[in-house]
Amino acid sequence: MSKPFASLLLVPLLLLGLAGQPAPAEARHAHADAAEVVLHRYVDYINQKNWPAFAGLWSAGLHPMWGSFFGSADNRKNHVGVLGIKRAQLVGYHEVPKAFGVNFVGNGTGRYLETPGVESRFFYTAIRYDVFNESKYMLNGINYVFLVLVKEKGHWRVCQSSVAPAAHFIEGGYGFGTADERSYDERRMRFAR
Question: Which residues are the signal sequence here (predicted)?
Fold first, then answer.
């Protein structure tokens, strides 16, 4: 085989090899706006086990909580919360209007959202998890997660991540239309004590 011909074969093979490398969330989701990129990073950082970056996605007031959480040897050993996720994949998301989303915020988030000038966005997400131990908070398979983002110093930050009451989102017209979603609340309750 001649050298020029071998070189011609080598370039496409190198390009194919590079194409197989994962790109950062911004590159993979160039169509997503800044808040939506946070949703993708949320999942990327779980998969990378990049807990400092994951904590950095959150509202500044929650950073100390995450520092304590990730600093706990018991949490790591027992796979508590987000540490119990082996893998995650963002399957889809719907942005929901504030008037609908505020019905599902916790007390702390609600008080924060009442602060004058706070910009917020609400997302109903479908995230596929592979978890160490199933519970009413996380199942193997698709989980429905409600994420509230707020804008702080020009950047979107997570201020709430909670199990979404799928039936309410379906009833409100924001569901994904799957049988899995319709049975989600019931499947979670198998683990309720």
Answer: 1-27
The sheet with strand 155-163 has its strands ordered as: 85-96, 120-131, 141-152, 155-163
Q: Are 59 and 95 in contact (CB under 8 A)?
A: no
Q: How far apart are CA 69 and CA 72, in angstroms?
A: 6
Q: What is the pLDDT of residue 10?
A: 38
Q: 143 — phi, psi (to 5°)?
A: -115, 150
Rounded mean pLDDT for each run of 10 residues along the chain, 193 residues in total:
44 37 48 91 98 96 94 96 98 97 94 93 98 96 98 97 97 96 94 79
Q: DSSP alpha helices (H): ranges in 20-165? A: 25-28, 34-48, 51-56, 63-71, 73-77, 98-101, 107-113
Query: Which residue type sits at 150?
Result: V
For 134, the token pair is 């199933």
Q: What is the CATH number of domain 31-189?
A: 3.10.450
Q: Cβ neighbours of residue 163 under 8 Å, at least 6 residues apart?
A: 136, 137, 143, 144, 145, 146, 188
pLDDT at 192: 81
**pLDDT score at 31:** 62
What distance in Å separates the CA atoms of residue 121 and residue 151, rounded to the nearest whole number?
Answer: 9
Beta-bridged to residue 143, according to DSSP, are: 127
Q: Which residue has the tokens 């909580």?
A: 65
Mapped onto helix, strand or coil, the DSSP state of residue 93 is: strand
